[in-house]
């Protein structure tokens, strides 16, 4: 069994976490994004197994009972979880596992994998975060207000992370993430 190198990435919606993690994976051959399970409906353009593993509520609950998740949480009325198997498969392939999860999930992962490193990605300001959410054009004003309240809660936990990166310059933030990944050493090494 290989010991996984894990980098946890958390951020409020709209801070650039997904764009940064995708760019990091594209730039490196030794990192991969975990694909979470979720009960939320699939959005147009999403692919099962690539964006998420889409499962119904009963299947998700059974997976929880079977102990198949390293972490899971309910977010905006839907369940999300990272399976132990997705982390193991990346480690067995010689890759670091990048987990895009919230602060609650980050706590659980650090308990299970004490060597995991964690980064909280901050927007340049609250106003810029709100503008980014509005510019997406996919949420109503009520949903954006709810996301902003959740962002305030999420950002209040940034002190729990190994590092906080302000995403005001994409290339610099990407370089900082790359440095964090370098600090994990060689992925998949036995320990």
Describe this structure in words.
With 191 residues, the chain is α/β, with parallel strands linked by helices. The chain has a single domain (6-182), classed as 3-Layer(aba) Sandwich (Rossmann fold), CATH 3.40.50.300. The protein is built from seven helices and nine strands. It has helices spanning 17-27, 57-65, 84-92, 103-112, 126-136, 141-155, 170-182; strands at residues 6-10, 31-33, 37-38, 53-54, 69-75, 78-83, 96-100, 117-122, 163-166. The chain has a five-stranded parallel β-sheet, sandwiched between helices. A four-stranded mixed β-sheet has the order 4-3-6-5. Strand 5 (69-75) and strand 6 (78-83) form a beta hairpin. Helix 1 (17-27) packs across helix 7 (170-182).
Output the keywords.
four-stranded mixed sheet, Rossmann fold, 191 residues, 21% strand, 7 helices, alpha/beta
Q: Major sheet: size, sense and barrel closure? A: 5 strands, parallel
- Name the CATH architecture: 3-Layer(aba) Sandwich
Summarize the helix and strand pattern as letters.
EHEEEHEEHEHEHHEH
Mean pLDDT: 92
Strand content: 15-25%
CATH superfamily: P-loop containing nucleotide triphosphate hydrolases
Runs in which pLDDT lies below 50 for 5 or more consecutive residues are none
Structural class: alpha/beta
Count of the separate structural domains = 1
The CATH class is Alpha Beta
Helix content: 40-55%
- CATH topology, what is it called? Rossmann fold
How large is the count of helical segments?
7
Shape: globular
Number of strands: 9
Strand order of the largest sheet: 2-7-1-8-9
């Amino acid at each position: 069994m290989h010991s996984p190198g894990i980098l946890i990435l958390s951020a409020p919606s709209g801070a650039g976490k997904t764009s940064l993690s995708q760019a990091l994976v594209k730039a490196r051959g030794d990192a991969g994004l975990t694909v979470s399970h979720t009960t939320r409906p699939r959005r147009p353009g999403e692919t099962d197994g690539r964006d998420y593993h889409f499962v119904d509520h009963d299947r998700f609950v059974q997976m929880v009972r079977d102990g198949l998740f390293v972490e899971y949480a309910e977010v905006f009325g839907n369940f999300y979880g990272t399976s132990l198997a997705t982390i193991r498969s990346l480690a067995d392939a010689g890759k670091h596992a990048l987990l895009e999860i919230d602060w609650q999930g980050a706590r659980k992962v650090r308990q299970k994998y004490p060597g995991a490193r964690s980064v909280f990605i901050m927007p340049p300001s609250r106003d810029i975060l709100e503008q980014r959410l509005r510019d997406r054009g996919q949420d109503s004003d009520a949903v954006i207000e709810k996301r902003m309240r959740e962002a305030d809660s999420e950002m209040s936990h940034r002190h729990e992370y190994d590092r906080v990166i302000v995403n005001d310059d994409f290339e610099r933030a990407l370089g900082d993430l790359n440095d964090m990944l370098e600090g994990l050493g060689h992925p998949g090494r036995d320990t």
